[in-house]
Amino acid sequence: MSYECLLYDMTDNIATLTLNRPERLNALGGSLREDLYDAVMTASSDREVRVIVITGAGRGFCSGGDVKAMRAIDQGDRSANRPKLDDKIAPLRDRVVLALRDAPQPVIAAVNGPAAGAGMNLALACDIRIASENAKFAQAFVRRGLHVDWGGTYFLPRIVGMAKACELIFTGDLIPADEALRLGIVTRVVPPDELLPATYELAARIAAGPPAAIRMAKRSLYHNLDCDLRQALEQETYSQIVCRETEDAREGIAAFTEKRVPRFKGR
After folding, report:
1. Residues 53 and 172 in one domain
2. What count of Cα atoms within 13 Å lies in the side-chain half-sphere of residue 40?
3. Which helix (H) or strand (E) holds 258?
4. Are 190 and 133 in contact (CB under 8 A)?
5. Roughly how many angstroms between the first and final C-alpha of the chain, as a whole number?
6. In CATH, what number is assigned to the domain containing residue 41?
7. Cα–Cα distance, 37 to 116 (Å, whole number)
8. Distance between CA 205 and CA 69 in Å, rounded?
9. Other beta carbons within 10 Å of 44
10. Model pTM?
C-alpha cells in the first residue's frame, strides 16, 4: 500500500502506520491527514489486523500543524484562502480522531520524539502510548495564538485531571518523557533503540489474544467512560454474551481446564 506522506506495513497481524514527513518533524501538512485517515480506515476494516501501531519517521513523532504552510496562507490572499483551508482541514481532522476511537483494534502510539499540539493530541487519541526517552509533549497551540484541536480538550482532562490539563493548555509548557509518565500520559518510557521492540512486544501479546473479547473490551471501556454504573453493567453483560458465543471463548475455557496455552483464531 503506497501513500505520499505515510508508510503502511502489516506484519504478524500488526499494522504499522509511520508518519513520513521527517523533514518537517511529521507536521500534519501535505497529504498526511488524508493518508492517515485512509490508512486507519484500511487497517480497521482488515480482519487480519489485530493491533494498530502509529509512529513517526526520523526524530519526531508529530510536530502538529504545518506552521510554515499556515504562514504561507497568511501571507497570501487570506480572505480567499483561509475559509477554503479551514473547510477542508477541520472535517478531515475530526474524521481521523473519530476513526482512531472507532477502530475496533487497540491502537498503540510509539512516540519516538516531539509530539506537539495536534501531534500530542494524535497520540492521546490512541489507546496506549509508549514513549522514547527522546519524546517531548506540548499543547503548543497557545504559543501560536490558537485554540486546541484534535480532541485535546476532551482527552487531556480525562488523563491528567482538569487542573493539570488547564495548566498545560494555558501555558503550552513542554513536558519531558519522564514527566509524561508520571502524569499518566504514557504507560512506559524506554531508551530510543528499545521503543519499537517494546511496542511490538506489547502489540504481539495483544495480537495473540482473542480479537472479539479485546475489541468488545475497547468498546466497553470508552462507552462506560461517559455513562453511569447501571449502563456500564448493561454494556458489560451484552459484551460478555457476544464473546461467550465465540470459538475463542470455548478455546480459552478448554485451554484452562487442560492446563495449556490457548490458541486464539479470531473466530
Report:
1. yes
2. 28
3. none
4. yes
5. 27
6. 3.90.226.10
7. 19
8. 40
9. 17
10. 0.90
Contact criterion met (CB below 8 Å) for 61 and 26:
yes
Q: What is the mean pLDDT of residues 194-208?
A: 98
pLDDT digits (tens, 9 = 90+) for 1-20: 789 999 999 999 999 999 99
Average pLDDT over residues 94-123: 97
CA distance 150 to 220: 22
Are residues 171 and 154 part of one domain?
Answer: yes
Indicate whether 164 pLDDT > 80: yes
Nearest CA to 122 out of 108, 143, 102 is that of 108
C-alpha distances (whole Å) from 96 to each of 34, 76, 89, 90, 103 are: 9, 28, 11, 10, 10
Q: What is the pLDDT of residues 218-241, one digit of tens each?
A: 999 999 998 999 999 999 999 999
Cα separation of 167 and 258, whole Å?
53
CA 116, CA 35: separation in Å to the nearest integer? 20
DSSP-derived secondary structure letter, 163: H
Grid coordinates of 210: 482473542
